[in-house]
Design a protein that fits this description.
Elements (H helix, E strand, L loop, with lengths): L11 E6 L7 H17 L3 E6 L1 H8 L6 H15 L6 E5 L5 H10 L4 H5 L2 H9 L8 H4 L1 H10 L5 E4 L4 H17 L3 E2 L2 E2 L9 E4 L27 H9 L20 H9 L2 H12 L5 H23 L4 H29 L4
Parallel strand pairs: 1-2, 2-3, 4-7
Antiparallel strand pairs: 5-6
Helix pairs in contact: 3-13, 4-8, 4-14, 8-9, 10-13, 11-13
Length: 345
């Protein structure tokens, strides 16, 4: 039987992403770079997964891209620096215990809790071209809670905009623990079957896309982790800038410019100082400023793309299988406690 993970007193963290396509810089800065830091700090036992069942909540009508997207996302995980020797990297659908816990937690979760999740109405509004009036979309926060509680992590690394999901998970765990107590030697003791995880707030700069809105695949304004240098530079050339700077001789304000926002995240202090001085005095044009931003982005992307090239599809599939096997062992440990507490043995 495979080992779930190296036995460790370190606190456990867990997070995941949906496989909706290759990852972009917004995904990297908002989550992936922080996961790598957590892994490399050696302070945490790390579980990171690909939530392919979650992709069905919006892409149920055509799931043909989920499998190839899964491989792409795992490649991006590995390219960014996640290491299967130091983190458990797995695929949600290969750990069937997630579906079992989802069913059981769904029995105790009030519908009103789901309807008040901020992203429920937001996604219905933003994805108005899709019919999201289905049970899977309404219940996805319960599946998310199952994903988290399955591994009993102490922490879930998220940005400020995602804390509501973790809070709902905590409420579901609290309700479960009120109803069911762990079985020990045929008796009930006072411990909790599903400990409530804590939020681990991580830096999450909101990167602008090429159109000035938040970088998002749904807006078609992304810079992908796989974009080669010529593509990066071409995308930056078309990026919107400070709307007040109409002519080359007009002074601008980097604080009102999406390109300036990129400089704040990726450029060196020296370059950023030159951007502020040159833009506000009209000493540099937007083309030159965008070129400097492209230089900074390329320096970030080159090592990621070099690591990506070192993984074959066969190796990625093996990593998914091995990580999922380890995750199943840990998941079954949790489910044995859940079944016993619910007297479903």
């Amino acid at each position: 039987m495979p080992e779930p993970a190296i036995s460790s007193p370190r606190p456990r963290v867990l997070s995941g992403m949906r496989p909706t396509g290759k990852l972009h810089l917004g995904n990297y800065m908002g989550a992936l770079a922080n996961w790598v830091k957590l892994q490399n700090s050696a302070q945490y036992e790390c579980y990171f997964f690909i939530a392919d069942w979650h992709a069905l909540t919006t892409d149920y009508a055509d799931p043909s891209r989920i499998a190839p997207n899964t491989l792409d996302v795992m490649l991006d995980y590995l390219a960014a620096g996640l290491d299967p020797a130091r983190s458990v990297l797995f695929l949600q659908s290969k750990v069937l215990q997630h579906a079992e816990l989802y069913l059981l937690l769904g029995m105790i979760t009030p519908v009103g809790w789901l309807e008040r999740v901020p992203s429920y109405k937001d996604q219905q509004k933003n994805l108005s071209n899709r019919d999201l009036s289905n049970f899977g979309f309404l219940g996805y926060p319960v599946l998310m809670a199952s994903d988290i509680l399955m591994y009993q992590p102490q922490f879930v690394p998220v940005g400020n905009d995602q804390t509501a999901h973790v809070e709902l998970t905590r409420e579901v765990a609290r309700r479960f623990n009120q109803f069911y107590k762990p079985a020990a030697a045929g008796k009930l003791d006072g411990q909790e079957v599903l400990p409530e995880p804590q939020v681990l707030l991580t830096p999450s700069p909101q990167l602008p896309g090429t159109d000035g809105r938040k970088m998002s695949k749904s807006y078609g304004n992304t810079i992908l982790l796989t974009d080669p240098e010529p593509v990066v530079r071409q995308k930056l050339k078309t990026m919107v800038t400070d709307p007040a700077r109409i002519r080359r001789t007009d002074p601008g304000d980097p604080d009102k410019c999406p390109v300036g926002d990129l400089h704040k995240v990726f450029s060196t202090p020296e370059t950023l100082a030159n951007v502020y001085e040159g833009c506000r005095s009209a000493g540099i044009g937007c083309i030159e400023c965008k070129s400097w931003a492209a230089d900074a982005l390329v320096q970030v992307l080159e090592p990621i793309q070099a690591r990506r090239a070192g993984f074959s599809e066969k190796l990625v599939k093996e990593i998914i299988e091995e990580g999922s096997s380890r995750a199943r062992v840990r998941a079954e440990e949790t489910m044995q406690k859940v079944r016993a507490a619910m007297q479903m043995t």
